Amino acid sequence: FDPHAINYTTINHDNIAHSLKVIEVIVDMYAGHPAVQGVEPVNEPWELTPLKLLKKFYWDAYLIVKKKAPYWKFIMHDSFRFTVDTWGGFMKGCPDRALDTHIYQAWMDPADRLTFYNNACAQKKQIALMEREFGPIIVGEWSLATDNCVMWLNGFNDNLPGFPRSPCKYTACSDPYMGDEQPGAPVDIGKGIQGPYGTGMSGPSFGLCPVDRDWMTERYNRGEGGMSWVSAPPEAPRGRDGTDEVMKLLALKKISAFSGIGHGYYFWNFRTELYSPQWSYLLALEREWIPKGNLNDDRIVNSCHKEDSGSFVCNANRQAPEDSVRSGMEYAVGESGKDTDYISTLKDDDLYDEADIVFGEFWDSHRGQGATCDFGGAATLAEQNKTHDEDYYTDDYYNVTEIQEFPVWKIVVFAILGALAGGGVGFTIAMKMNPRFNRAVRQSVMLRPVTSSKVFRQSFGGNIDPGYQSYS
Predict the structure, then answer these.
(1) Nearest to 114 by CA among 143, 83, 85, 146
(2) Is pLDDT of 12 > 90?
(3) CA-CA to 228 of 20 to 30 Å: which in 58, 243, 302, 403?
(4) How confident is the model at residue 300 (pLDDT cuts 50, 70, 90)?
(5) Edge-first strand listing for the sheet containing 73-77
(6) Mean pLDDT in the chain?
(7) Number of H helices and number of E strands within the chain?
(8) What is the greatest pairwise CA distance in the chain?
(9) Angle between the 322-335 and 348-366 helix axes, to the nearest 10 degrees?
(10) Strand partners for 39
(11) 186: region left, alpha or beta (phi > 0 left; psi from -120 to 50 alpha)
(12) Is the pLDDT of residue 166 over 60?
């Protein structure tokens, strides 16, 4: 592979032939086994694999399978090219074939919860389109991760260049599942991360292993909007952990997108070594992030109704520098095949107002293919100012626990009122129950204008020491 020309200079046909031979051996071994229902001949061929060569490989493998296991399902991975142009009409009319696509959010840029919600719901549009133009679609892998922090996600001691995008949360490393006799096991709590490394770094450090970040509860009264991830620590402070809220809603929206239109979906993984519910089906069930039971539950079926009804708009981020906004606009306009020269002449409010239109039109047109409202930080999602009926709010969209913080002046006022109320109650009790206190109050010259009043005498006149003479 030539990384500069971005193509293959040679093809190892012997390896391809060997792979086809392996498929034939697998079919011979398991064609009659009741637990085996089909095969996927290769997992995740990358997006730069020559498409003509990949399709020929799929054809050859399909013929091998159907010859000896005619009832098996034949699954093909989309090579990270989940488009009609790539797969529309491929193998049309052939029985028992399906296309596998893997839909993750772990490698998206950091964003607010609205971006992840909208991205999850938007997948159903592309799945529906591919179902119509190709046939059965299976989401062969998905998770609830919104970052790629969890250890060794991209390989042993490895990570993709530039990842993770945000600081990761760390937790105590688990015991080695293959036993302490393995090299480097258990983890030495006195050593930092050890090599060898790949293109990135991910591994144990001083007995701690990286896992997914926490989500913070939103505090709209503090102006954080949906953007608190920018300054939020990887581990939420006590009382501010909103991970359960975000994960439950995200799971509902993903399941709604995958189950209602496609032909099935598989959570990756069934379980994990570290405590990472975002990647563990068992732990996600335990945390009640993934619902149990009927997939026709109203909360699943209707979980994307806000996104589907167009309740969100993609606007320019008024806090983004003008150069960033121009770059985002040039990308969006250029992708649409239009002239971008006019963008350089815009500035101030004219620039941001035009960006609202450009970003909004591009996002509306491409979100079904997984486009996000980001544009390098130049855009952000906002909910439209609409009048909605009561049913619109039934899913408790944000499920926010707001933290109301009393200003100092309110605390002082309530303290004074409390002291006055408490003093009044104490005074009344003392006047009623303590004759000596009652007598002392009545004899006070300073209080005589009050104690000589008719109301006062009627209220506290019945509890006086014998022989007491009041002043007249």
Answers:
(1) 146
(2) yes
(3) 302
(4) confident
(5) 38-39, 73-77, 97-103, 137-142, 265-267
(6) 84
(7) 14, 9
(8) 122
(9) 40
(10) 74
(11) beta
(12) yes
Angle of CA points 6, 12, 15, to nearest 5°: 125
Residue whose tokens read 């029985």: 95
SS3 assignment, position 349: helix
DSSP 8-state secondary structure symbol assigned to residue 80: T
Give burial (CB, 10 Å; 0-12/13-18/19+) of 150.
buried
Strand, coil or helix: 209: strand
Residue 22 has pLDDT above 80, yes or no: yes
Tell me: the pLDDT tens digits for 306-364?
777 666 678 898 888 899 899 999 999 998 888 899 999 998 999 999 999 999 888 77
Q: Do 399 and 249 contact (CB within 8 A), yes or no?
A: yes
For 389-399, letters b (16+ CB in 10 Å) and e give: eeeeeebebbe
State whether residue 249 is helix, strand or coil: helix
> Residue range 300-304: average pLDDT?
84
Which pLDDT tens digit goes with each residue over 203-213? 899 999 999 99
Q: List the structure tokens of 295.
A: 């997939």
Q: Is the dihedral of CA 111, 113, 114, 118 positive or negative?
A: positive
pTM of the model: 0.70
Q: Is 97 exposed, middle or buried (0-12, 13-18, 19+ CB in 10 A)?
A: buried
Can you read off the two tokens belonging to residue 259? 């189950």
CA distance 427 to 234: 53
Which residue has tokens 């100092």? 408
Q: Measured between alpha carbons, how far is 133 from 455 in angstroms, rounded to an integer?
A: 90
Distance CA 154, CA 158 (A): 6
Amino acid at 182: Q
| Residue 238 to residue 207: CA distance in whole angstroms | 23
Classify residue 175 as left (phi > 0), alpha (psi -120 to 50) or beta.
beta
- Long-range Cβ contact pairs of 233-239 (< 8 A, separation 24 or more): 233/167, 234/149, 234/166, 234/167, 234/168, 234/169, 234/170, 235/169, 239/403
